[in-house]
Amino acid sequence: MRSRIEFSFLLVVVATSVYGGDCDYCTYRFGRHEFRPSSSSYTVELLATMRGSTEGLSMAVRNDATLLRPEAITYHVGKVLGREPDFTAENIADTGVTFKIIFDAARSETLAPVENMVVGVVRYTILAEGAEPALEFVDGLGNPAVDNRAQFVDGEHSCCLGTVALHKQNEVFVRGDANCDAWVDVADPVYVISYLFGDEADPPCMDAADANDDGKIDVGDAISILSFLFDLGVFLPAPGPYPPGGHDLTDDALSCDQRC
User: What is the domain class of 174-243 according to CATH?
Assistant: First the structure.
């Protein structure tokens, strides 16, 4: 199994902490950001980690209305569910985006536990050139007010929310492409193991080799890549491993010396 890589991302959101909610059940965070100079806009992935069987969810994302204007949202949860959800409803306002999703109105089908699922992609217009606007998950946004919650089989729970800051960076990579050959395949976990226990040189992009995004290179990264390749429903942390790549979303000591 291989995933071909191309590039176009210019912006990154760096997670600095997690707050609120019940992290034992669910976590919301931001994923890849694609800047589109021709239309003065960029798109932002909204990610969710669910640690139980889920019947539905709601998200509320606030923006600075002087810097950004949300235009539209495209739902991607159907790619993991295997079909489109039975119910979606969104409210797009100057100050943010809120939406609710019900996977199965009859409650006979649930979404299995999943890591870093792309729930949807929001498109924004940039209102202030040169600005680095921030986005944040907040409860009580909109009218009627919407919270960041998920409905599990055992009841409704508020979700842990990642705080973020936007930065421009130069290093673009795809998570899991340890050998920087523009593919995520079995050669990448072999490269990691050779680096750790053999005579392989340092990975050209340490962030790419850090497949599980825990801030270090170890056998867990090789296992994460193999799990992605051969276990359906397992995802690697952003950016990737799908085109076109991006920047590191977490603040750690690893660097990326080569675009890969």
Answer: mainly alpha
